[in-house]
Amino acid sequence: MRNLKVFIAYNGAAYHGFQRQDNALTVQEVVENSIGKLLKIPAPVIYGCSRTDTGVHARQFCFNVHVDSRIPCEGFVKGMNTLLPPDIAVLSCEDAPEDFHARYCTKSKEYVYLIANTVQRDVFLQNLAYHYPYPLDLDKMNEAARLLVGEHDFAAFCRAEGKARMKSTVREIYSFTASMKEDDVCELRISGSGFLYNMVRICAGTLIYINEGKLTTDDIRRALQTGDRSLAGKTLPPEGLYLNRVTY
Predict the structure, then answer these.
(1) Residue span of the structural domain in which 71 resides
(2) Which residues are catalytic?
(3) Which of 20, 72, 80, 195 meets the CB 3.0–4.6 Å disulfide criterion with 90?
(4) DSSP code string of 112-151
């Protein structure tokens, strides 16, 4: 039995997240069914590196799958990309050790949140970026972002039902920056050891509230100290969020 380590990319606009659900279309279901068709077997279970939410995208998402097949990795990539819909693509495939698990072996993850900072909506970024028509003070936003770097208790930056499932809400953020790219798109880039439920979208919303003067840097410090959700920003919509990179 082989353990394949596979990287894919997907546009999540049409899917209810990665993880399989009984009553909604997900990336996992589509990929598993495609593997079954390719190898002419019942759809196998794949193990993903993350549980991306409805509408969230991935530029680099890893999963592993156990298969009893001699198909070359190159043939797996080509065959899968023939079967998959246009909004999901296999980037690479390699044989991994038996004990490799895409989720539990992760060393770090990097997310990007895109903000279309234009007065009018950019129709070509529909479902691909969060539209924000007001001026952005990047210096203010980066000052606030630096407060979140390091090991902290991020209870204030997590959706309530997510905290109930977690043994600990302590996470380490390695970097968090805001920068303006081409075509008036602001990129929030954050990397860390791991993330809580909705944590990246709440961190992004916190920078928006800082920009608008609804929160101060003192509020962020108190949020980290007390776990008070009201001291952090709103949860931004999913369409601007991308799982950008996973490292092992």
Answers:
(1) 2-96
(2) 53
(3) 80
(4) EEEEE--SS--GGGTTTSEE--S---HHHHHHHHHHT-EE
